[in-house]
Design brief:
Length: 266
């Protein structure tokens, strides 16, 4: 499995039809789950190193259509991490206070501090997706915001924060099946929002908006288009990319400021 296959190259346009939502990496479901379990051990180890070192941070951005699997990813992938070193943020409709500032004001406050992993379950990209699809902003404003986002992410990387951005790419048929499952199962009724159907009706508009948002992929803040029809493969691929990134950051346990051999515990 080559994660670079799913990485959006910097520059140029993006066409989501180039990525298969049902990709399985030529693996079986059992193989994928076994590999994911193995990766979870590595994720826990490298997160501990990151936290102990306290010099770098990692920001993970999750974006998807409704029922695309953001919550499932947090549960099944980020569940490997020690909760003390992770902060999950969900950006919903801005409050009156937040609307009184620039659109990135509320986001900057949730960026992970050194030694931490931050997870954005929906993110600053909502301000160039929902707002654009519902004509709250025009194309010119969207373009300016995308430029601001590039500079904002560059500021974060300059300060020691690595950024991974995942678009969970789910098909229209699979989304329909998942929404129907929420209607059929009383235990999942709380997950269903009739407004999701309004958003589903704007499928093409969201496709266009996402394709523009994905052009913000850079070497230091890449986007990955994650096939999301198969939940197990989604979890496997994201786990592998995060582990590769943490290993590339190479955080180290700090050296002791004392000689352990000279300490005697009575």
């Amino acid at each position: 499995m080559n994660p670079d296959k799913y990485r959006v190259k910097p520059g140029g346009s993006v066409n989501l039809s180039d990525w298969d939502t049902n990709d399985d990496g030529d693996l079986s479901k059992d193989e994928g789950r076994t590999l994911t379990d193995e990766l979870q051990i590595g994720l826990a180890d490298w997160q501990e190193r990151l936290n102990a070192e306290g010099r770098q941070s990692l920001l993970i951005v999750l974006q998807a259509r409704d029922a695309g699997g953001k919550d499932g990813t947090v549960k099944h992938v980020m569940g490997a991490f020690n909760p003390n070193g992770v902060q999950v943020s969900n950006f919903k409709v801005p409050t009156e206070e937040e609307r009184g500032h620039d659109f990135l004001w509320r986001v900057h406050q949730r960026v992970p501090r050194a030694g931490q992993i931050g997870v954005f379950n929906r993110s600053h990209y909502e301000d160039v997706l929902v707002t654009r699809v519902h004509s709250m902003i025009d194309d010119s404003t969207a373009d300016r915001r995308l430029s601001h986002i590039r500079h904002f992410e560059s500021l974060l990387t300059d300060g020691g924060t690595r950024i991974l951005k995942f678009y969970l790419h789910v098909s229209k048929d699979e989304q329909k099946a998942r929404l129907q499952d929420r209607l059929d199962d009383p235990a999942k009724h709380w997950k269903f929002n009739p407004a999701d159907l309004t958003e589903r009706a704007k499928w093409d508009e969201y496709t266009s908006a996402y394709q523009d948002a994905l052009t913000t992929s850079t070497e230091s803040a890449p986007w990955y288009v994650i096939p999301a029809d198969r939940k197990w493969f989604r979890n496997l691929l994201i786990s592998q990319i995060i582990l590769d990134t943490l290993q590339g950051m190479h955080p180290q346990f700090p050296k002791a400021t004392f000689d352990p051999k000279e300490i005697e515990i009575e």
